[in-house]
Amino acid sequence: MKINHLYLFLTCIAFGVVVCAQQPVTLPARARSLSSPLEWRLVGPAHMSGRVTDIAVAASHRHTIYAGAATGGVWKTVNNGTTWEPVFDNAGSASVGAVAVSPTSPDTVWVGTGEANASTYSSWGDGVYKSTDGGRNWKHVGLADSQHIGRIVIDPVHPDTVYVAALGHLWGPNPERGVFKTTNGGVSWQNVLSLGSDLGIVDLAIDPANPLTLYAAAWGRRSDRFDDSDSLGIEVLPGSGVYKTKDGGRTWKKLAFGLPADRVGRIGLTVAPSRPTTVYALVDRAPVFVQLPAAEQHLLRGLLASEHEPPAEQLERLRVVIAARMPAESSAAVVTGLSRAEQLQVRRLFGQGELDTGGGVFRSDDAGETWRRVNPINERAAYYSQIRVDPTNPDHVYALLVRTWESIDGGRTFNQTDWAFSSWLTSRFVHGDFHAMWIDPLDTQHLIVGTDGGLYVSYDSGAQWEANPLPIGQFVRIALDMKQPYNIYGGLQDNGCWGGPSATRHATGITDADWFKIITADGAYVQVDPTNPSTMYAESQYGNLVRVNLRTGSRRSIRPVSAPGEHLRFNYVAPVILSPHAPRTVLIGAQRLFRSLDRGNTWTGISPDLTKGEPNAETGEGATITTIAESDVAAGVLWTGSDDGRINVSRDGGTTWRDVSDRLLGRGSGHAPPTTWVSRIETSHFAAGTAYVSLDGHRHDDRRPWLYRTEDFGESWQAIARDLPESPIYVVREDLHNPDLLFVGNELGVWVSLDGGGHWDRAGRGLPTVPVHDLKIHPRDSELVAGTHGRGVWILDIVPLQQLTPSLLRSDAYLFAPRPAVLLDIDPTRNRGASGAKWFSAPNPYSPLTPEGDTTGTAPSGATLDYYLRERVSGDAHITVLDEAGRLVRELTGPGEAGLNRVLWDLRRSPLPLLPDWRRIGGNDSRRLMRAVRERPGPLVGPGMYRVQVIVGTHEVDGSIRVDRDMREIGRN
Prior knowledge:
By secondary structure, this protein is mostly beta strands. Helix content is about 5%, strand content about 35%.
């Protein structure tokens, strides 16, 4: 049983500045919010970036640019992109849908949280924020339940008058939707266009000549609870369309003449600044789902399964039946009950290209009174549907889709630009999937675009581009190897799978040149063979698994294939693991679990359907396995979880299975609903019957945290979410050395429990608000690695947390056993030449210890010395390092605060005085003296054992640390 006084002690050591009592007390609210001395470290990457959703430029300061990321916050540059800084790290949400800068006050910035895109990875926000000092400070100004905001428009004459396009919830109804207006700078809001609990506003456009005239795009949508990334997974609700006001929102009129009347989805809007009567709308229109009679459905499936040319009379029969059930559009029908792949097969069977559902680019030249369709283009509209017009030419139009399409004749013809895309990042091309564009009104050849791969700038109308290194990569899964330093691998949304180092042997730190790509497309799981780190398994969407040899570059597709008559359903991020007991054994989940004993060359199904088996009637997609795990303690103890709430366990390697879902789910208001998505199962490293299960209910419009532990193979469960914030949990991890030490990743960051789930608080400091989709603990280095979905990869040193015990916390003082330190050698094989300021580097573990003015290029070696004090003492702690003979090596000072304290040692002996003839010699000593530095770094110590002594107040604690040489031999063949 975990008790409150133990939690108080644990909180003190992790977050550490309160005096701990030994009697049960209520933890003060202030203590809960204090930051831990353990600090997160970013390792990148940056050039392989993430989704940028909006761009805003100050009209009077064109070199000041703000970029909003889908899940990476807001970034700002004041020097036209030479350097960027995050300015939204501590907001309540990292998901940004809209950014706007006041046209009359460039320091007044508005942010609408919650991206407007409807997709597998869509995150939500918590309303509108405002800054009046250029992003240094932010104030939340309302609309907290709007969740997704598509646009913010500021009145060019009255800057306190602002309009917000609020979409509302993606997975359920809610009233806070529509167009909201403030006339007092966000103090109060009025819902000036409300269309019910299912219809929100995705876009707004203002008439620059008459700011009382605005156009609003209404969109009713509901995402399918099963994992589906394309537009067929987004249900289009009735009522979408274009609305117009001429009186600043007091009255609205729905514009209908020439626009589609039904099945209307997402709409993008733009008004031509040079001729405001010209308005463009990029309109999504859903297909018609056709249900074939049983005989024709059977015939169609037979043709799809056949390897022979289909008979012409059978195709004609199907055409007639489908046409009788279709609207006027010749290729707008989708046959229900077929998978994505089968839908594509059907179109190929009939010689069809993209579906023309009647949507596309519409144009009005009379301020919206009448419209005409000028082009059918609009692919995957729920994810894009952005349209822009040249500020100086009303006929020059850009449609932002997978690629960017350009028209110079008012939309009648569009040509695909050659901007996109190179997902391998090996050419001048831009990463595809376009979501944002800014066109310089004073120089229309100057373009800025935001894509799924980051932010790009052109000064010659797109002939050449430069990328901006923003570390906003959206990792979905990560893996680690055992090299020294170890590497981190992971899959990113639309950026494939990458690998990069946790540290480098160079003072410049970790740069993008240190990262390498393994496969392309939407990355998912990566697994590394622990016996041969050159062999790895990398996955892209829907279970497309590849075995890769990093040494030779060879790769082989090893995805399991369907048996005759079976359609395998793989999750968009299908779970893949290697058995901890046999690394040649690979497991992957579809709706059944598959196992390979020969590294993926052959597969065997080892389970029945482990979901509830209820596919969507229209799309044919349905429930899938979302997480699998095998016990580290007992081989053959397997667990699976699905996206429709099933949890299954096998204790005999997959021969028999037991559904334990009902013992966990659906038992009243205190438990997760029965169909809640199982986001992760973590097996214990200490007991075969112990496992942890996290559930993610946001696809049911449920953001409550659900977290459970079983100690008897799922026979009974204990809820351990306790005081976690309201946010769905994506991952749970148990520490490798301390069973009471747990971590979870959710939409807001990483949380730690030091008492087995009894209580939770933020883990460490320095990690921005960001969704965390995966966590791994390195078994040798005792570092927690977070794969964030929006800010790349971060690392936290958790050595002291792993050693916590109740008896330790009753000590007056304690010195934690440090992990061995390594004297790293410089790596001369990497070119770290002059790149100017426009580059990215992440700090090495001990970068703060690098001496100023050091020109050796040596990577910073160092050690972490952690000690605990039960009570605060006056003065500093005195720390001495001695060699094996008891000779003094180094003296250091540290804080005397209650709780956990940390001091870094640079593995050097005591500093040396400056050379007496520094004026004649010049060089580094001259520069040090000019900065009032009176000493230079001492020499590095040699390998061996060293004694550490901490004296603080009347307390003295001793320990030791081992310093190892760098075992890597540079240049060895």
